[in-house]
Every structure is written in C-alpha cells, then in structure tokens.
Amino acid sequence: WNAIDVDDRSILAVHVSSSRTSFDAIYFLKKVLEKCENKPLVLVDRGPWYRFALERLGLEYKHQKFGERNAIDQWYGLLKARLKSFWKRFPYHSSLQSVKNWIIAWCAIYNLSGGEKLLTMSK
C-alpha cells in the first residue's frame, strides 16, 4: 500500500501487509490522513477494499486507472526496477518486518532524492 502526493510525487505513507481487506485499507488511510492538512480527494483504482474504507472515513474519492493516479504505477515500476537490481526476486524467506523495514527506508531515500525527478527519469 502507498499514497503519493500527485503534486510533488512524494510518498505520504506506505504500509506492507499480507492481505488486502477493507480493514487494511482503513488502517492505511488513517496513516495517510496523519500527513494531510485537510481531507484530500483520494484517487484509487477499482480495488474492492477501498469503497467501504473510504466511505467509513468520510473521504471523497474518485476511481481512476490512468491520469494523476498513474504516479502510483510509475512508483511501483521504479520500486520493481530497484528490487531487480539487488535480487532476481525479493528474498523468499524474508519476514514481513524485514520487508517493511526495507520499504520504509527506500521510501525515505526516494523522498529525499526528489521523487518527482526519479519518476521523470524512469520514463
């Protein structure tokens, strides 16, 4: 799970889970809201877990596959390219906590490096 500010392409929040449920979505969206001054318009794909969570939290949302939401797809492309440069695949026996630690560290470096520049360079 990740949320990107569509204006500056910075990572607002990241969450690693072993499932995708509405409860995971609520947990993640609460983390995102901690980084926002107001309730944002949330751009999502058609994942069935979003609707309940967004309505439960009273958030305005819009289903979008392309356009501004494409920043998420670009970010995942960059992440996958980085993972492939270290390993042929992400370590099979990694614990969930190890994966969380790696992703959090990578997101911090991504934000410090200027996420928008990195996404532009990866096109």
Number of domains: 1
Summarize the helix and strand pattern as letters: EEHEHEHHH
Mean pLDDT: 81
Percent range of helical residues: 40-55%
Which secondary-structure class do the elements indicate?
mainly alpha
CATH class: Alpha Beta
Task: Please tell me the CATH architecture by its name.
Answer: 2-Layer Sandwich
The strand count comes to: 4
In whole angstroms, the N-to-C terminal distance is 22 Å
- How can the largest sheet be summarized? 2 strands, antiparallel
CATH topology: Nucleotidyltransferase, domain 5
User: Low-confidence parts lasting 5 or more residues at pLDDT below 50?
Assistant: none
Based on CA atoms alone, the radius of gyration comes out at 15 Å
Write down the overall geometry.
globular
| Number of DSSP helical runs | 5
Kindly list the characteristics that best describe this protein.
mainly alpha; 123 residues; Nucleotidyltransferase, domain 5; two-stranded parallel sheet; two-stranded antiparallel ribbon; globular; 5 helices
